[in-house]
């Protein structure tokens, strides 16, 4: 099933429910900060598992105490779709459980 890109207005409305997330260069992006490296690595591992479950993957960047998340839908021409919003919400849920969001 083809996934359609969202309009900028649809994305902006959805971002109101995703504090910390923004639209940059046709990607949803967010950076999380942690007290240390192991906590940051745990988020990466849990997000990777969630991405496998969803069948949709972001780019994850792990630093010493930061994790960057960047996502769009390649099959929709590298644009943001509902799949990306669903993944961003899932990442937020994981971060919240870890006490980060």
Description:
The longest helix has 18 residues. α2 packs antiparallel against α3. A four-stranded antiparallel beta sheet has the order 1-2-4-3. The termini are far apart. β1 and β2 form a beta hairpin. The relative contact order is 0.24. The radius of gyration is 13 Å and the shape is globular. The protein is of the alpha+beta class and 101 residues long. It has three helices and four strands.
List keywords for this structure.
single chain, about 100 residues, alpha+beta, four-stranded antiparallel beta sheet, 3 helices, 4 strands, about 40% helix, about 20% strand
Topology at a glance:
Layout: H1 8-15, E1 22-24, E2 27-33, H2 37-54, E3 59-62, E4 66-71, H3 82-97
Antiparallel strand pairs: 1-2, 2-4, 3-4
Helix pairs in contact: 2-3
Brief write-up:
The protein is an alpha+beta fold.
Our estimate of the beta-strand percent is 15-25%
Indicate the structural class.
Answer: alpha+beta
How would you characterize the largest beta sheet? 4 strands, antiparallel
Low-confidence stretches: none
N- to C-terminal distance: 32 Å
What does the average pLDDT come to? 96
Envelope shape: globular
Give helix and strand order, one letter per element, not per position.
HEEHEEH
Q: Can you give the helix content as a percent range?
A: 40-55%
- Specify the number of helices: 3
The gyration radius over C-alpha positions equals 13 Å
- Could you give the count of β-strands? 4
Order of strands, widest sheet: 1-2-4-3
């Amino acid at each position: 099933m083809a996934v359609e890109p969202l309009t900028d207005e649809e994305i902006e409305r959805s971002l109101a429910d995703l504090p910390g997330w923004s639209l940059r260069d046709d990607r949803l992006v967010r950076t999380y900060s942690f007290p240390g490296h192991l906590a940051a690595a745990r988020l990466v591992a849990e997000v990777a598992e969630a991405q496998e479950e969803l069948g949709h993957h972001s780019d994850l960047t792990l630093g010493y105490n930061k994790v960057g998340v960047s996502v769009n839908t390649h099959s929709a021409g590298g644009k943001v779709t509902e799949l990306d919003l669903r993944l961003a919400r899932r990442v937020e849920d994981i971060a919240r459980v870890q006490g980060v969001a």
